[in-house]
Structures are given as C-alpha cells and as structure tokens.
## 1
Amino acid sequence: MQLFTQQVIQLLAKPLAEHLNEADISQLIEVPKIATQGDLAFPTFRLAKLLRKAPPLIAQEVAAQIESEEFDVTAQGAYVNFFVKRPVLAKTVVGTVLEQAERYGSSEEGRSQKVIVEYNSANISKDMHHGYIRGLMIGASLDKIARSLGYETVTINHLGDYGINFGMIIVAFKRWGDREEVERRGVSALNELYVRFRREVEDDPELMTEARQWFKHLEDGTSQEALDLWTWFKEVSLRDYDLVWQKLGSQFDSFAGEAFYSDMMPGVRRELIEKGLIVQEDGAELIDLSSENLPNIIVTTSSGNSLYITRDIAAAKYRKETYDFARNIYVVGSEQRLHFQQLKAILKKMGYDWYKDIVHVDHGLIMLAEGKMSSRKGDVILLNDVLESAIERTRKLIEQKNPDLEDKAEVARQVGLGAIAFKELYTSRIKDYVFDWDDALSFEGETGPYLQYTNVRCHSLINRGGQMTGEIDYSLLNDDFSNELIRELARYPETVQSAFERYEPALISRYLIGVAKLFNKFYQQVTILSNQPAEKIARLALVRAVSTTLENGMKLINMEAPKRM
Ligand code: ARG
C-alpha cells in the first residue's frame, strides 16, 4: 500500500499544517492488518497529546476536513482511515506493475551501500550433506533480495579449510588413501578417510600425535608435501561442491576461508594485548566478556594456537577494510549463536563501532527421521543426490501427466529444484524441521510447483487471449475477487522490504502463496476471457500483473518459472 502513502500524506498535510509536518505524518501512517480498518490509517494519539483533546474527537475533525476523489475517508475510534477507491486502486496498482515489469518490487533504497552475505561456508574434505541446503537457500535468497533493493552485495564462502582436521586427513591419506580413488570419487573419499581416522584413533592415540605434527607443518609452512596435499584436498572438494552450487545458481565472489586469515593471527593477538583485553589463564589467553553478560572466550591456546573465533575477528576486520560494508551478514546455523554474540562483543570492546552491523542470520536444523546428520560418523545424505533425485522424480511425474510437453528435461529441473527451494524457504528459518521426501516433492498444497503452476495458468490465459490493443479500462476490475487480488499485489514491495529487514525469505514465499490462492479464486469465479472485449482486456491486464509479481517473487526465493509444465 506504499504506493498510496504519498497521496495520503498530501491529504493530511493541510488539516494538520499547524501541528505536524509531512515527515512527522509519514512516520505516523500505518498499514492496518485488518481490511475493514482501511488501506492506510493515521493514528491521532500524538495530536491528542499536543492538543489535549480526546483522540476520537480529533479523528472525526480531521476526517471531516478531507475531501478526496481517490479515497473514502472515515474516522474509526482514534484513527482516520483511508480506503482507496476501487478504480483508483486498480489503475495505480495494475498500471504500476505492468509499467515496472521485472522491476516491480525493487528499489534504490540500498544504493551505494555494500552488504556482505556470507553463506554455505563449507568444510573442506567433508561431504556437502543435505543439511547444507537450508543455509544455501537462505543465503542465496538474501543476496538476491538485497540486490533487488539496490544494495551492492558481496557473497563469501568462508571455507573451513584450517585446523587439526587437515592433519588427520593427511595422516589417513598417507596410511590408507589412494590418489586415484580420491580423484575418481572426490570429496566422499576424503570424508571416508576422515571418518576412518576418527575410528582408528580410538585404539591408536599415536595417530593423533602424527596429525598434530602434520598440522603444525601446515601452519608453519615447513612442509611442501603438507601444503600440496592440503591444496589438492581443497581442489577436489570445491570441484564436488560446485556441482551443487551450479544446480542452485549460487555464486560466490570470495572463497576467503579460515586459512586465508591465518597470517593475520599475530596482528590480532598484538592488537588485543595493546587494547588491554587479554587475561592470562593457565597459559592460555582469553577475553573477559562479563561486561557483555557473555561467557569468557579463549583466543590463544596454551600452545600458542589461534582459534575459530580469532580467525573470525581477523575476517571481520578484513571485510570492513576491504569492502567497507554497511552490513556483514553471516548465514550460519543457530548452534553458533553464542559464537557470533561473542564475536560482536569482542569487536565492540576493540572499539569498532561497526560491530553493530554484524548480523548473524541464524537458522534451524534439518533433521532426518533418524536424527541430526553427522559427517564425523559418515551417516549423511548428499545434497547433490537429493537435488538429482528431485529432478528425476519430477521427470517421472511429467512423463505420467504430460508426456507431450516440450523441453521435459528443462522443466523437470526447474520444477524439481523449485520444489526444494520453496520447501526450504517456506518454514521460518529459525524452526527445525524433519525432512520428508513425499512432502518436499508434493505438487499439492503450499508448494513450489503450485506457485509455478499458477503462473503457467496465467501464461496460458495470456496466450489464449490473443493480441490485445486498446486502452485498459481499470474501472472494470470492480468485482470483489479482482479487488482482493489487486490489494494483495499492492503489498509486494513492502513484503520484499520486510523480508530483508527481518532476513526472512519465508515472508516472500508465504506472500506468493497468498497471491496464488487469490488468483485461483478469481480464475474460478470470474470469466477472464470474457466476450466483452473491454472486460477481457482489463482482466488480462490483471493476469499479467499477477504473473509479473509471481515471477519477480519466485526469482527472489531461488525459483525459476517455466512457461509451461
Ligand atoms: N565452517 C563453519 C562450520 O561448519 C561455519 C563457518 C561460519 N562462518 C564464520 N564466519 N564463522 O561450523
């Protein structure tokens, strides 16, 4: 309803001229949740205080002074309510959607501001299991949403490519590994070596000593062999991960991961000491965070090693210096909530006022019926297999239902992956949920395929409608079904904005389902391809606006929109 805010401000400006300026009015205007309370509403509490009068009295006085062709204006309790008249609503909303087309819902509010979206942050040598889908979808979606709002984004995959694990895998590879097998089977072979190390080390603690040595070599750069193996593990892993990223259309601007920051550790340590933030305890160095009501945290171990948090301190500083971000978003599971609270608190204590711009976008877990997936034990479902399987299942469905469809393989890809994307982004990000195949791929109810199908229906109407020329008479979109649908279309830009403000793509998914449902009601109740040409033209204009909105929205939640299915 933001499309009408400016007009409402103008209407209020005159009667309120002595008390409030336009900026004040603009701040006070609300979009009521309930339709009977108007499309926009102005609360009079603030005026009531100023004028020492009862709010309902003021509401009545203000309403009485407003005359408008575009709005019905009424006083209800303490509010002045504005109802956009139907023809005005239709003309403004549908007209705007058609004119702005793929730009409808986008804006310039983020212009010349940079937003970092860190997501996926895969752990090298570990399988990319199905549990990663959540963060991948949220991250990719927030990237698109931010860009549509005019922000410049930088996507970062903060690789987990550092730590004692790499010592373990080197030991395992040298003992039990086979180069050719790793080349052939990729990251899964590396993951198995890691799992085997974990198993064998229980009976042979000596293995751990070896692993430490190899990691030390890596850290100090004292062994070319260690470095070569690490580099190769990374190549093999990225090659496999890329299969997933390609399918999901994820693109990363930077892969600066933990190892990238290892050189900066001495500098971080020095700075923490100089700023008086370090407390010694049993040979380790820690930061006291009690003033922030958080547990203390070790930043250097007693053997002088940096930790996960230390590398994150370096990474945050590096990102600020390199990108001068307006926001630095980390899409990471909610089990790391404390970690990011501590990171923020440390940066605050270091005197960086941009600590406020650090945002942990946390999300819940996906569980299999049998429990959380663990790459340590090796009981995982690979994400790539899930995606392949979604495409394959969809292909079979198409084969049954619509065997003559052109481009079957392409549509199966769009619909299968769309189903998965939607499933991930329909549940609020913070909720855990249990993954279920049939549910994820169901084409009924609130699903991705339902959205896609609704949009296909729009396209088929547009095609059947034939060439359209002539003025659109918006006053013909006067029935309740059209009106309700148009009202919903008007909410799209503000939905995209809140999705970004709350880092919650699910707001867009739910919104789109709402549009699809209203459209399908309209489709059933109203003869769209009316034999009255003027009616047909107006209704098809609305259909085009629905399709544009659905397509724009689907793009933001990582879905493609086939024209046929
Ligand atoms: N690789 C880490 C993990 O799997 C996640 C990294 C999150 N990002 C960060 N900047 N700490 O636990």
## 2
Amino acid sequence: MKVTLSVIKADIGGWVGHCSMHPDLMTEGESCMAKAKKSGLLIDYHVTRCGDDLQFIMTHKKGIDNSKIHEMAWNAFQSCTAVAKKLKLHGAGQDLLSDAFSGNVKGQGPGVAEMELNEREAEPVIIFMADKTASGAWNLPLYEMFCDPFNTIGLVISANMHAGFKFEVHDVKESRRIMFNCPEEIYDMLVFIGAPSRYTVKSVYSRETGEIASTSSTQKLSLIAGRYVGKDDPVCIVRAQGIFPAVGEVLEPFARPHIVEGWMRGSHNGPLTPVSVKGCNPTRFDGPPRVIAAGFQLAEGRLVGPVDMFDDVAFNNARQMAMDMADMLRRHGPFEPHRLPLDEMEYTTMPQVMKKLAKRFEKL
Ligand code: 13P
Ligand code: 13P
Ligand code: MG
Ligand code: MG
C-alpha cells in the first residue's frame, strides 16, 4: 500500500521563553488533527513537541506537497497560535512568516519532511526532531547511518545494503541540488556536506531498489525571512530494517554527540544532545541543542507508536558526554568557536559598532 508520511513543524510560541511547550497548544493541535482524521483527510496522526516546536506527524494518501494537507497543517498552527497569544507565550506565531496560506507551507516558515512509500510487510520508521539547531544538523548522522561501516555493520554483512545508498544534497544558498552515489563518491560528497550551514542532505535512497530511505526538512528560516526569527529546528524521517539500516544502526550516531550550530540566539555551536521527549526542555543558555526520536511501525498507514527511542540507559553516556562538551564550549563565552564565525551569526551588532567606531580606526 502507498502511504505518505508527512512531518510538518513550527514554533508558534515558547513556554517559558524558548524552552518548552504549553500543554494547551498540544491539546489544540490534537483537536485539529482529530478533525482532519475524522474528515478522512488523514489516515492517522501523532502530535508531539521538541522543546518549543510543535510537531504534526501525519499519514495520508495524497502524496507529498499536497495543498490540502499543507493548508490543514497551516490552519492548525494558526489555531494553536491563537491559544499561544491568549497565554502571551514567548514569540507566539514565531515561525508563521506570512499572514495567509499560499498553496504550500514550504517557504512560509514551518519545516517540512515528507515521503511517499510502499508500506512493507513491516515498516519501522524513526522520526528525529531537533530543537535549537539548524537544518544541516543531520548531515553527520545520516552519513554515518548510510555510509560508515563502523556505525552500520549492515553495509558490510547484509547483502541487500551492500550496493550502498544515493544521497540528494541541497545547496541551500544557491537553491540547487546534486546526487552522490555512495560509497564510491563519499570523498567528493564530504567536501560539501562537511559544510552543513550551506549544503544539507535532503534525502537518501537505496541503490538496491531505488526506494526512499530518509528525508529531512531543509528550510532555512533566516533565508526565508531575511532576518533572524528563530532557528530551523529540523526534522528527519528514516526507514529501518530490511534494505535499510537496522533501528539500532539508525540510532547509533547519536551515541557520540557532535557539534551543531544553534543554541543561544541561534548564534553558537553546541553538542546535539539525545533526550527523551519528556526531557526535552532546553534550559541552560537556551540549550544545549536537543534531538528526540519517535519510533513507529506503520500498519496500513496507522502510526503504531510512538516508542520514545532515546529514553534508554544506553544513551546516558552520550548525554554526559554532551554536557561535558557544553561546559567546554561555554568556557569560551563570546569567543569562537563557541560563538559562530561573523558571517554565520544570526544576529550581530557589528554594523552599528563598526559605524560608531569607524573614525577611530587608524591606518597601520
Ligand atoms: P532480532 O533477532 O531481535 O529480530 O534482531 C535481528 C537484528 O538484525 C538486529 O539488528
Ligand atoms: P528557537 O529557534 O527554538 O525558538 O530558539 C530561538 C533562540 O534564539 C534561543 O535562544
Ligand atoms: Mg522559540
Ligand atoms: Mg525551537
């Protein structure tokens, strides 16, 4: 059976500051999704949150980029924003960048990851959701899942993964894309995806069958808005088992935290910390950046789950390691490499300070 899995997310108001989500917003989101399911538009849905970002996980039969699905999600975010405004939550409606819906939520603020798939006999999917970081945060873990035998032993010992995977990489500044066949082109690909603020992995495909293995939200809020409104806080869908990495191989990259951009005011580097859904309330210096993982088995489009995948003792060391990395980076205060380089800062006083001091600069 062909099913579309759509994850559409937005920050429509933080509680308190940017750290969490008020339960009334989730209740409103639930009621919008329940209506859409009752009307037959959705097969199933799950509403969750990652820090201050509201997540609609939806299944339906309408394919990707469907305007009815996008419009329903947009309207749901609007209803939740109304609740956020009543509670005077922080940054109510933050990610809804236009007043009216215009056919597709892409380019209007929300993050979108969608895939149409042929549901297999067993269809495990993991949905990763991050807060306080930018699209591009998935580059390193996706590389490890689908290209690195030290992470994914299936690449070596499973006959149906041995052919490798194809990566679709987007240049978010020039709005263009390129495909890489892995493993033979990994050195070329790493030249690009090693710079995640510019090149992001959009999707991954099995080279055994051509089927989609993973897709991510790659929307860049600051490029859409032309100013800083909040971080992208991206999402990523990964299919597991069979011709894809096993569930444990999909989760394994997060056992070794890596550094991503985001954190305080979107302008700092910090460790991507794997946490349970309940434990996802980025407080220290508005962070550090978080990732949660919701696991489902699909059954005729029904979302059987979620299992809270990082709610496990096996990720305790990763969390401790991430806190040690956070201490080390915080030690640098306003200095790089904690603070982002000048050209990647989400906001800066540099033009004003430079203007004020211009006359005091003397030629050397
Ligand atoms: P099970 O025997 O529990 O199905 O596990 C098989 C496997 O490949 C785990 O990665
Ligand atoms: P969010 O993108 O999660 O709203 O965070 C914004 C911010 O500036 C935190 O300091
Ligand atoms: Mg926010
Ligand atoms: Mg957020």
## 3
Amino acid sequence: MMEYIGVVDSGVGGLDILKVLIKEFNHENFYYIGDNLNLPYGAKTKEQLEQYGIVLAQYLEAQGAKMIVIACNTLSLNAIEIMREHVSIPIYGIVRPTIKGMLNHKNIKHVLVLATQATVNSHRYVDFLNELDQDVIVYQQVAPKLVDYIEGNKIALIDDAIKEYVDIYQKKIDGIILGCTHYPIVRDHFIKLYPHLEFFDSRQQMKQLVKEKLNELNMKASINNKQVIKIHASKSISDLKSASEHFFNYDNVQLLEGGIFLEQ
Ligand code: DGL
C-alpha cells in the first residue's frame, strides 16, 4: 500500500502549509483533505469538531497515512486528543510549535492571537502562551470574515476586514499570531497594513516538526520514491481549487472529492 503524510484542514488554509512540506520533503507522498463540506470549523462546537476529526483521521489511516499533520488550529485545539484515540498512527498539531517559534523572538511581550471562534473558545492559545512565558500579555480576536473571504476568493474585501479586527489593538501590541491557517494566505495584506508589527504562523515550525518526526520514527520515504500528491475535498474540489490556485500549484496533483462523510 502506498504511504502518505496526511494533512487536514477545513478548506484551503492548510494548502499553505502543504506547499512548504511538498517542497521540503520531495520524496514523500502527501494526502491532503480539505473538509469544505463542514466549513467553517470556527463556527462549530467542540463535539462537532471531534466527530469530524475522528472521521478524517480514520479515513486518512485507511488510505495509507503513516502520520497526520493537522494544518488547522481549530481542529488541533478541539479534537487532537480524541483523534489520537481512534487511530494507531501519530497525529501532530500546529499550535505549540507556532508558540515556541514566536517566543524565540525575545522582544514580543504583547501579542494578539487572531483566530476562529472555536479556537478562542478553547482558550488554549492563552494557556499555552502563559505556561511558556508568564510575562506575555495576550489579546484574542475572532476574525470570521477572513475565512469566508478567502474560501470565497473575495480577496478585494480582505483589507477592510483585517482593519476591522486589528486596528483597535495595533498600538498595544508588538506582534500578531495568525492563529488560523487561512490567514497566512493573505499575510502580504497584513504586512502592508501594519509594517511595524511582527507576524507569526506555523509553516516553518511545522516543517521542522515533520523533519524531526520522520527521523525519530524512522518513517522517511525512499529517496527513489516519485512523489504522489492527492488533494481531496470532502464536498467540492472545484471550490477548493478555485480559492487556492492563486497560491498553490496544482501541476501533478491528483484531485478527488466526496465520499469521506455520509453526506447524502
Ligand atoms: N483554517 C482553520 C484554522 O486554522 C479554520 C478555518 C475555519 O474553517 O473556520 O483554524
């Protein structure tokens, strides 16, 4: 059976992480699921997210995943423990690595976590941050329009939405954690609007984590393996593709849709 690194998100957000992983681990096969049937995850309850997480983890294991990377803050924070209980392959989340990466930046003492409602509700960003550095002052802000606009490919509306969420904090903070994998897709907009702030996301830390785990668990693919990439949308692959073609290259990618959840 072909072996993959499984990567999951609610939609296009995780493709920004997948892009980095594909390039770095160019002999590894990847199986990405964008759960656009259940999007947006940010508006879901913990119980709903746990149900999605179990189905996705079991599906990926059945497809031959040797490990799963949850490229979604909302799912990591609400469902990683229960997902781990339902499969025998390792599952990694992105929140702790992101926070550790940020804390290596010595001058960050006031930070805004921009995230989905379900992530903010979990309160885990604040808890992890304070556990690792008690002096950091953390603000949280929910930014639901950003996921809507990114999934709907309405990039022209992004700047106003970012301002609506961030302007009130900009004088109080040194940096922003882009605490939803959709937001770094429009990182250029953030940087242009707030050039004096630092921005943190998960891509570099995720790459590092996957590298360490492949080595530690002796799971590296053969250097003779010709990389296979599958991208599977739980509802509509054309929606996923059209919202991500501007930042993700679909050459040599196998596309699939449906058949993961009992949607009919
Ligand atoms: N991309 C996801 C995250 O990192 C969630 C977006 C959504 O579906 O609300 O939190």
## 4
Amino acid sequence: MIIIGERINGMFRDIAKAIREKDPKPVQEWARKQEEAGAGYLDINVGPAVSDRVSAMKWLVEVTQEASKIPLCLDSTDYDAIEAGLEVCKEPAMINSVPAIPDKMDRVFTMAAKFNAEVIGLAMGEEGIPKDAESRVALAMELVANCDAYGIPIDSLYIDPLALPCNVGQAHGPEVFETLRQIKLLSDPPPKTAIGLSNISQGTKEREIINRTFAAMCIACGLDAAVADACDEELVATIATARVLMNLDIFCDSYAEVYRTRNL
Ligand code: THG
C-alpha cells in the first residue's frame, strides 16, 4: 500500500506559519521524517488560509524537493496552483484531485497528459458526495471513461470514494467499503483506489485507533493508497499486518519490520 504522507499541509499550524514566513525548515523536516517512515509520496497542500495559492504551492514544491526525492502529490482545488507546482516538479507527480465534473476533468486530465502525472479522481459530482455506493461507483465510471479518453493509462488513476468523519457521517462507512470493492470491477485493468484516511476520525477523541482500524478494513476491500500519517508507527504496523492477512505480502516473523524498512 502506498502511504501519501499527509503532514505538509497548511491545515497544520506549523506549516501555515512556515508558508507565511517563507521558512523552509519545518517543511523540510516533515519531508525527511515522512520519507524515513516509509511514505511513497508526499502530499503538498497550501491549506485554506493562503492568499496566493499559486506562489505558495510553487514554493512548497521547491523546498520539499530540496529535502526529499520521493514523488509529490499536489493537493489543491486550485488548478492554477497545481499547474504551477507541476512545472517545478523534478519527478512525475500525482494530481490530488478532480471530481467527476466535466470542465474540471477536462482541465485536470489535459494537465495530467502534458505532465505525465497520475490523478486522484473523487467520487463526487455537481451535487456533492452521494450517500450510497451505487452513485459513487457511477461517478467513478465517469472518471475512468474520461481518463481513457484523454489517453491516460487507467492504472495512473486512483479513485477516492471519500471518507467522511465517522461522528457525523457514520452511515457512509459501509458505502465507502462497498465502493472500494466495486471499483475493482469497473475495467480491466481496473483503476487504483486512494482515500484520505485521517478524515474518518476528524473531530473524534480516539483518532489513532479509528484511523488504524479504518486502514485495515479498507485494505480488506482492496485499497491501494492513502493520504495518511506516515509517522504513526502503529498505523504502519496495522497496514503491514492487513497486507499479510490479505496474502499481499509473504508472512515471516519479522514482516512488520520488513514492511517499515521497505523501499517502495
Ligand atoms: N482525499 C484526498 N485528498 C485529501 C483528503 C481526502 N487531502 C486532504 C485530506 N483529505 C487528507 N489529509 C488530512 C490532513 C490532516 C488531517 C486530516 C486529513 C487532520 N488534521 C487535523 C484536524 O483537522 O484535526 C489538524 C490538526 C492540527 O491542526 O494540528 O486531521 O479525503 N484525495
């Protein structure tokens, strides 16, 4: 499973401050820490409180790349900011994300083709996030069809069924699991799947156990990637265990250690 390290996000106070003061240190520390913890990508999100998202994204990408060589996952609803980030990425990146809305898919898939980028597509449309799995899968199908029409390989597309905080959106849980399972039946080869793992526990008291349990359950449904806390060692051990139990990695007594120190 690919862990997309979530920590370089202006939603966190230290990163918001670093962006404001143009101080590369906190960003680069988190880049190194997440890479060492086994992240396969680094999510880069300028956060909600930034006035110039284009220049903030460009700066975040540049300073992150000075500290880490792993690929970046550019996370913004502002596609000008994503494009500015892609222009300075040294390695092919991931675009996070695009909803199943025609003009947005046109913008993002055109950009993905130009920059040889992977794409996270969201199972949401003009009317927001549907409640049931069937509607989420229908939106996923639109993303698959558009991805193909723009000449992007289907295995470069990650579909995100969208996890909502379990304290307000509890009924969405089973629908997310069912969506993950059905996405693998959409095409051959199928698209990959991704999720924002920490969303599930936002606003709750027992965040870590909820995130870890959710990760194991999603892996049982075929999850390929998660924007998650790469530095939570118990989460990484849970992911390693779920993969062994799904027969995706070979069991040995040191499987958890092997997983932690793997090279993706
Ligand atoms: N899908 C995709 N991308 C995503 C999301 C998703 N990117 C953003 C987000 N969701 C995933 N990343 C985070 C990062 C942090 C938190 C949740 C998801 C988080 N932050 C603390 C909070 O809100 O309580 C901030 C705490 C602090 O300020 O220190 O939980 O769903 N494709």
